[in-house]
Amino acid sequence: MRRQVRGGAPVTAGAPSAQLSRRLGRADLRAVPEARRELRELLRHWGRQGRSDVAELLTTELVTNALVHTDREAVLTATVSPRGLRVEVRDFTGRRPRPRVPSADDGTHGRGLLLVQALADAWGVRAHGVGKAVWFELAADPA
Questions:
Q1: How far apart are the first and last CA of the chain?
Q2: In terms of DSSP bridges, do strands 122-128 and 84-91 run parallel, antiparallel, or are they unpaired?
Q3: Residues near 28 by Cβ (< 8 Å), separated by ≥ 6?
Q4: Which residues is 80 bridged to in the sheet?
Q5: Alpha-helical runs (H) found in 28-136
Q6: Is 88 exposed, middle or buried (0-12, 13-18, 19+ CB in 10 A)?
Q7: Nearest to 70 by CA among 35, 99, 101, 94
Q8: Burial status of residue 129 (CB atoms within 10 A of its CB: 0-12, 13-18, 19 or more)
C-alpha cells in the first residue's frame, strides 16, 4: 500500500489544497479503516466536523465498493481546497456502478451509492483508460 499526503496546514481561502493519495490492494478490506483514518487526518484542519463525518462515511462506501465489486486494486485520492473536498476512487474495471433500491433480503448491502447520492453535494462516475473513477464532492460551506 502506498500512501501520499501533502499539506497539513489549515485550509483557508487562498490556501493551497491538501491531498491524500493511496493505492488500495486487491480485495484488501483492511484498507477500508486505514483509508478512513488517513482521511480523518487529512480533514483534521478542515474545520467542518459534520462535513468531515459525512466525508468519512462516503469514502468508506466508495472504497468498500471498489474492493468488493472488482477483482483489482484501486486508488483513493482526496483533495481538500478552500472550496471543499473531492474524493475519487479509481478502479480498473469498466463496469459502471448504479444506485439501486436494496431489498429486505440484502441486509445492509446495496445502500452505498444511495448514501453517496443523498449526502454528497455532487457525485458521479467517469471512465478512464481501463476502468472508472467514482467521485463525490462536499462543498466547504453547504448551501
A1: 37
A2: unpaired
A3: 1, 67
A4: 18, 85
A5: 31-43, 49-69, 112-119
A6: buried
A7: 94
A8: exposed
Nearest to 112 by CA among 102, 103, 125, 122: 102
Residue 101's pLDDT is what? Answer: 66
Angle at 126 between CA 109 and CA 98, to 5 degrees: 25
CA dihedral 99, 51, 139, 37 (to 10 degrees): -80
- Identify the residue whose cell numbers are 480533514: 43
Instruction: Return the DSSP state at 28.
Output: -
- Residue 105 CA to residue 109 CA, distance in Å, equals 9
Instruction: Please name which of 62, 68, 36 lies closest in space to residue 125, comparing C-alpha atoms.
Output: 62
Q: What pLDDT, in 10s, does the model give residues 6-47?
A: 444 444 445 568 999 998 888 788 888 999 999 999 998 787
**Pick from 138, 22, 132: nearest CA to 77:** 22
